[in-house]
Design goal:
Layout (H helix, E strand, L loop, with lengths): L1 H7 L6 H11 L6 H24 L5 H5 L12 E9 L3 H9 L12 H6 L26 E5 L2 E9 L3 E9 L13 E12 L4 E12 L7 H28 L4
Antiparallel strand pairs: 1-6, 2-3, 3-4, 4-5, 5-6
């Protein structure tokens, strides 16, 4: 907390105000009541300001509140909707979605981090920088790997508009959940392409339901990582698709 206060102190031109903040920043002089108040204020600010933005980055209110393919598969106990505009038609973006996955085209995110968590073994080393012809076949019921432990099932596919992936995951092993699993995350990952005048909108929605329900208390702590990884994914797909669309060698 003192680090946060230190960052704020220099922005004031009022010397007396800086001295007051410096006193608050000193862990020895800050009373327990003040520390508690600061922590509560930070928690409220995160819950009301930061967290909603992490869960809806890039998406309009209509997109956040609208129905998407796959919404009926998992109870809406937790949801994020992210979006990006791509200056390429859906048909040009679709191949990049179809080839995603572990031991496939990758996730177009931070490949080094994917390797650290055991999800970074991709067909071309890192996330694919080209459309891979042999990875373009995908059908309902197929598996899209997350890691060596298991992967998602294609629950819905409507080319070139929507791809819905579903996974009942054992939270302890990361493998598919069984009757004996003590902790389960039932979740879907939907990728939807909506045509626009300049190309399309790519919407990505995660819906999740955890058992036991207390696991949902951890979601706020996991959200920043999920946000950073998925935002990078959307930005990379946008870049790849637009570069491919404008290439003279198409």
């Amino acid at each position: 907390m003192s680090g946060v206060c230190a960052l704020r102190c220099p922005i004031s031109s009022n010397g007396g105000f800086r001295l007051v903040l410096a006193g608050l920043c000193d862990d020895h002089s800050m009373s327990g009541g003040v520390r508690t108040a600061v922590l509560v204020a930070a928690a409220v600010a995160y819950s009301r300001v930061v967290r909603p933005r992490l869960r809806t980055w890039g998406a309009s209110r209509a997109e956040v509140g609208g129905a998407l393919p796959g919404d009926d598969l998992v109870a809406d106990r937790y949801r994020t909707t992210h979006a990006v505009t791509i200056a390429s038609p859906p048909a040009d973006v679709w191949p990049w979605l179809v080839q995603m996955g572990h031991c496939r085209g990758g996730w177009y995110s931070y490949d080094r981090l994917e390797r650290v968590i055991g999800a970074g073994d991709f067909a071309e080393g890192g996330s694919a920088r080209r459309i891979v012809p042999e990875l373009q076949e995908l059908a309902v019921g197929d598996k899209v790997g997350l890691s060596e432990a298991g992967g998602l099932t294609v629950a819905g596919l409507e080319a070139p508009r929507s791809l819905v992936l579903h996974y009942r995951m054992d939270l302890i092993t990361a493998a598919a959940a069984t009757e004996g699993s003590r902790a389960v995350l039932d979740w879907t990952w939907a990728f939807v392409l909506e045509p626009t005048e300049i190309g399309c909108r790519l919407l990505v929605r995660v819906r999740a339901n955890a058992r036991p329900s207390w696991f949902e208390l951890l979601f706020p702590a996991l959200e920043p990582v999920h946000f950073l990884m998925e935002r990078k994914m959307l930005q990379t797909i946008k870049q790849r698709a637009e570069d491919e669309h404008s290439s003279p060698h198409r």
